[in-house]
Specification:
CATH topology of the largest domain: Rossmann fold
CATH class of the largest domain: Alpha Beta
Number of domains: 2
Number of strands: 15
Helix content: 10-25%
CATH architecture of the largest domain: 3-Layer(aba) Sandwich
Radius of gyration: 21 Å
Structural class: alpha/beta
Strand content: 25-35%
Bound molecules: S-adenosylmethionine
Distance between the termini: 49 Å
């Protein structure tokens, strides 16, 4: 019988745990023996959950219950330390499936930002794929590195501090390009030169005007199957007195653009 830590589902030092007290009080923590987690529900010592299984129920010093849950990929994204806006899980899930990437793929990302998308891309291409991520702001890259390291995917990411509107990409023949910057159209001609033929370029933009310029640039740079979509997520409240959608929430994130490159003059990879 395999009695490894993962089969027993036990929490170890440095593991990520979602400490859940209630909907408003949930914390993504890396288990460190002597660190305390404090909230208005009381304190708990993280080291006390080492050796306990995920799903464990503990109590704070004020006697409030907390639950040790396995963080989802969406939790890893939503709980990065943010220095920029981030992409949302609903949009990321859709766009990942609109590309052909998987374990072993080589992917370029433009606009590292806080690294929320980077960590998902890295998880998707691991164990032997690579994400080449570009941002023009060194301080954003430094913060993103910490977020991705905490998520456990730093070995699948290479960081480049470049303004991609001004400088060329350093890779060639990548399997997909993900763009989340305010002006994707300034990058598309360069991206077209390094993306494999038939493969996917996708981008996020909050405004319709940005989408129009992006689509124009895609059409002028050898892309077809250009599609623009918006993913709407509506959470439902399920209660004794009635079931209905929640009144508040994130009502708009971004328009999503997907496209595929065809081979033509200047774009032969
Ligand atoms: C909205 S944030 C990206 C957020 C990221 N997708 C995430 O989920 O954390 C946009 C980022 O693009 C970077 N950026 C904007 N224009 C750029 C350019 N021309 N070259 C490189 N980075 C650029 C900004 O510095 C910023 O960090």
């Amino acid at each position: 019988m395999n009695d490894s830590k993962s089969v027993k589902n036990l929490i170890g030092e440095n593991d990520l745990v979602l400490v859940y007290l209630n909907e408003k009080r949930q914390f993504l923590v890396q288990i460190t023996p002597h660190l305390k987690l404090s909230s208005d529900f009381g304190e708990l010592i993280l080291g006390d959950v080492i050796g306990k299984p995920y799903g464990y129920i503990g109590k704070t010093h004020l006697g409030r219950e907390f639950y040790c849950l396995k963080p989802s990929t969406a939790d890893l994204m939503m709980k990065v330390k943010r220095t920029t806006t981030i992409v949302y899980p609903k949009d990321t899930g859709y766009l990942l499936l609109e590309t052909a990437i998987g374990p072993g793929s080589k992917v370029i990302e433009v606009g590292t930002g806080s690294g929320a998308l980077t960590l998902v891309l890295a998880k998707f291409v691991a164990p032997d794929g690579m994400v080449y991520t570009y941002d023009r702001r060194e301080e954003f890259i430094e913060n993103a590195k910490k977020n991705i390291e905490r998520a456990g995917y730093i070995n699948n990411v290479e960081f480049f501090c470049h303004d991609v509107a001004e400088q060329e990409f350093l890779q060639k023949g990548v399997d997909a390009i993900f763009i989340d910057v305010p002006e994707p159209w300034t990058i598309i001609p360069k991206a077209a030169k390094v993306l494999k033929g038939g493969h996917h370029m996708v981008s996020w933009s909050p405004n319709v005007e940005q989408v129009k310029s992006t689509v124009d640039a895609l059409q002028n740079n050898g892309f077809i199957r250009i599609k623009v979509s918006e993913i709407v997520e509506r959470e439902m409240l399920v209660r004794q007195q009635g079931v209905r959608p929640r009144e508040r929430g994130v009502t708009h994130t971004a328009y999503l653009v997907t496209s595929q490159k065809i081979l033509g003059s200047g774009f032969e990879i």
